[in-house]
Amino acid sequence: MEKQYKEFKNLVDKSSQILLVTPPQPNLDHLTATFALEQALKTNNKEVKIINNNLEQRQELSFLKQPGDEIFIDSLDGSRDFLLIFNTQHNKIINIKTEEKDDEVIIRVTPEKGAIDPRDFSLAPADFKYDLIVIIGAPQLESLGEIYQKNTDLFFEVPKININNNSDNEDYAQVNIVDLTSPSVGEMITNLLEKLYPDSLNKDTAQLLLTGIINATDSFQKATTTPQTLLTAAKLIKLGANQKEIIRKLYRTKPLSFLKLWGRAMARLNWDNSKKFVWTLLSTEDFLKSRAEEKHIPKILSELRKNYPRARIFGIFYSQKDDTHGQFYFKDQRLLEVVAEEYQVKPSNNSLKVIFKNKDLIKAEKDFQTTLNKNF
Predict the structure, then answer these.
(1) Residue range 297-307: average pLDDT?
(2) Residue pLDDT, tens place only, 196-205
(3) Which domains does the chain carry?
(4) pTM of the predicted structure, to 2 decimals
(5) Which residues of 212-241 are buried (b: 16+ CB within 10 A; e: fewer)?
(6) Which residues, listed in sequence order, are joined to residue 199 by a DSSP beta bridge?
């Protein structure tokens, strides 16, 4: 990693406006690592923005020190200006005035003499506002969903750093910091900061990073946990991270109704290895017995994504009156768009919600499988 760390620092040193990007619905490991990196970059006098509009997820981390609200943006609108350029060598511009009407802006330009020769002005795009993009937890650019789809010029023209531990990683950036042996991005960011910005590793960043590591490893219970992970956690605890508080906030504060519904979801888990599709089914009885609500479904879907990183498609089918509803998450943007078109629904941030009218769970499950088989 020495070479990648050196290249990382070279790009950061040359940059002043840095954009941090995660997949549309990042897991807590990705999000806490992003927050820790933002703090480190800020202490090195960099202006940083983070793409994230998931307020509910950030509220789940309210016990941690997070970046200020002004750091978060939910779109890249206005990230590039367009320039109207005048050659004034032979004819000076003495006045410029703008005027707004209903659906247009008029720019009145007054030359010093005569009329402006059309050959003396041109329209050109300015440089992008950001001069470096750091992408955390996205194995491909397509994993970024709409942010990438709507801003492809930005992602192709601005230098990129890719940080992740996903086996599906594509080396799409100028600098690719990838460690397939690491169970969490938080561990990777800890090592990076320790090497390049040791002064930024304080109690607050340590708490952020240890939270991500604990969440990604299920409190060090997953088989992916390595001796290096435990050493990294020990360093963070030495810096002031409070392991007991993190565990209490992450696990013991979840509503009992959610935990009961999650248990029922796990009991009916299904796996299609050929499609890398993991899904579960929840009946009306499951909701009644657990006293859970539909609002818990996105959180269960998030837990599926966290616990089954090998999967490419995640789904939950659940009963609602006479219909079955389905909530799905796709890592493959192309497949997401094809399936969305089949059901005539609009995807959002790699996610899809489908209502299977007048179908029970089994029929809805079969319907969706048929759609996948046709388009896979």
Answers:
(1) 85
(2) 999 999 999 9
(3) 2-74+130-250 (3.90.1640.10), 80-128 (no CATH), 256-375 (3.10.310.30)
(4) 0.73
(5) bbbbbbeeeeeeebeeebeebbebbeebeb
(6) none
